Amino acid sequence: MDPRINSGSGKMTGNNTTNVDVLLQPIDIAFGTFLIFLTIITVAGNILVLGAISCNKRLMQGVTNCFVSSLACADLAGSTMCEIWISIDVLSSTASIETLCVIAIDRYVAITSPLRYQSIMTRRRASILIICVWLMSGTISILPIHLGWWRSGDPAAQACYDDPRCCDFITNKYFAIISSAISFYIPFIIMIFVYNRVLKEAERQVRAFSVLSTMLCFFVSM
Questions:
Q1: Which domain holds residue 117?
Q2: Which of 95, 162, 192, 221 has its CA 20 to 30 A from that of 50?
Q3: Is residue 175 within 8 Å of residue 129, measured between CB atoms?
Q4: What pTM was computed for the model?
Q5: Which residues contact 93 (CB under 8 A, 6 or more apart)?
Q6: Which of 10, 27, 61 is the last residue before a domain boundary?
Q7: Confidence of residue 128 (pLDDT cuts 50, 70, 90)
Q8: Residue 75 and residue 96 in contact, taking contact as beta carbons nearer than 8 Å
Q9: Whose CA is closest to 45, among 13, 65, 20, 71?
Q10: Residue 75: pLDDT band by 50, 70, 90 thresholds?
Q11: Are residues 27 and 119 in the same domain?
Q12: How many CB atoms lie within 10 A of CB 192?
């Protein structure tokens, strides 16, 4: 039997393994470079968004831009320590998608009630919505994570928790269901419903405008 083959696992060892590792290195380097480039572009884009809104008084007065600023802050959040990093990661992800949900509702109000939009969606109400988004995100992330409610009793998970070099986010079933529902599925369903209503309302307004234009053309041609 070839000594380079482990009879217990059937995996190649020795020179063949070294060759495989050498072949994988360019792929790892390329993928890592792509992720770094994507991260830089994302951070730079969010900084530009915040800078553009903060430097332009006209943009700062827009209610929708308050939500966009909140979204940019959510995308920029992060940390290095394990539990802090996990909680900030969940916090920013939850705040990001929930802010997208609020933006969808804001667009729905703007489309369905354009004349009353300024009185309905005031800066005060926008600020309250943003505070609610971040409070809800903090409730589902910082508190349960630092209290350990997310931890699983699985032996493999416990081994990771005990290993200071391991920072995998291995959760128990209940936390995974509740967290994913609040952080993703419920806002996602709301966005689908709201944007569907926005599309139907836009189509209705286009049809109404088309009829009105036809009538005006008819009267003008008489």
A1: 62-221
A2: 192
A3: no
A4: 0.61
A5: 74, 183
A6: 61
A7: very high
A8: yes
A9: 71
A10: low
A11: no
A12: 11
Mean of the pLDDT values across residues 32-40?
Answer: 65
Distance CA 132, CA 178 (A): 18
Tokens of 213: 């234009």
Conformation bin of residue 54: beta by default, left when phi > 0, alpha when psi is -120 to 50: alpha
46 and 89: one domain?
Answer: no
SS3 79: coil
Residue 31 CB contacts under 8 Å (≥ 6 apart), including other chains: none
What's the maximum distance between 2 C-alpha atoms anywhere in the chain? Answer: 99
* Pair 55, 74 in one domain: no
- Looking at per-residue pLDDT, the higher value among 188 and 60 belongs to 188
**Residue 87: CATH number of its domain:** 1.20.1070.10
Token duo for residue 145: 């994570």
